Amino acid sequence: MERYKEEKYPIDKFELDITSSHYHHALAFPRIDNWLDIALQNGVKDVVCKVPSYPFPISAFLASKSLRELVLTGCDIMSLSLSSDHQRMNCRSLSNVRLDHNVLQTLVNCCPLIVDLMIEKCSLLTKIELRNLQNIKSDIGEIDASNLVSFDYVGYEIPELKITNVSNQLKNSQTYLSCYNDEEWFCKLRKFLSNLTSWSQVSLHIGKCNDINMKDLGLHPIPQVLVLDIDMRFNDVRTCPNFVDALLWSCHPKRLNLLSAVETITCFMDRLKNSSQLKAFKFISENEHVEVDREDLAMMTRTQIDRIFFLLDW
């Protein structure tokens, strides 16, 4: 490495794996610091560092303009500062890494254009929030939820996710998704939601409703959802019955909040009555509502956008 330093040879990839060696003793950490510093000064693009308990200089590497990929295993990155800013990174993999919710949030805020993010076996991580990741591919992987107390996911795509060892410590679980409305999308939704036996809230933004063939939907456990929040501001109700059926196939909400045209709300009411005991309420203000029935809706302008919530008893 000293030759690279003296001759300033460019370094495309730096890889250090001493997980099976006694060399990862803390006395060796200063030498590792030196190696990484040389790699950083020589414009390293890809870094793989697998050193148990090593305090990886994460802030310095995130500030690098050349870094594209960072793979860490066993390292400690609790020293991450808020000043780092790295827009260009393509991939980041964290396995058995010492980090908490605040560090993870800082990490993703530093790289809003990151494409791939893999988090695995990070025992201090009890809360996960992924927000404003514009290019993320939504492949979170596997989460050991034995210590997880809160889970939030916000994205345009449904992630490929497996949550294991869910304990009763999980108090809050929310997801916010944009809906593409086809059989494949609803299958992915139900598979994703079935990771947990119940969800605090699921929010869906519906841009367009397509016809859905219920026969093409597969089988997954039906998750319980306390609150299903739907923003569905379009007036074409021709495919509404199929959409409601697919929605109920995906989850069983206790409460369904709906922002939509009155004719779509009416369609929802008719379809939901066939599936469960139902009460409907219209919002008068943010904290005030009144119970309504189909006759009340019939007196309203059918294209009017309104907010209704349904209480369902399965």
From TrEMBL:
It comes from the Eukaryota. Signal peptide: none annotated. Transmembrane segments: none annotated. Residues 11-179 form the At1g61320/AtMIF1 LRR domain. InterPro entries: At1g61320/At1g61330-like, LRR_At1g61320_AtMIF1. This is At1g61320/AtMIF1 LRR domain-containing protein. It comes from Solanum verrucosum. The lineage of its organism: Eukaryota, Viridiplantae, Streptophyta, Embryophyta, Tracheophyta.
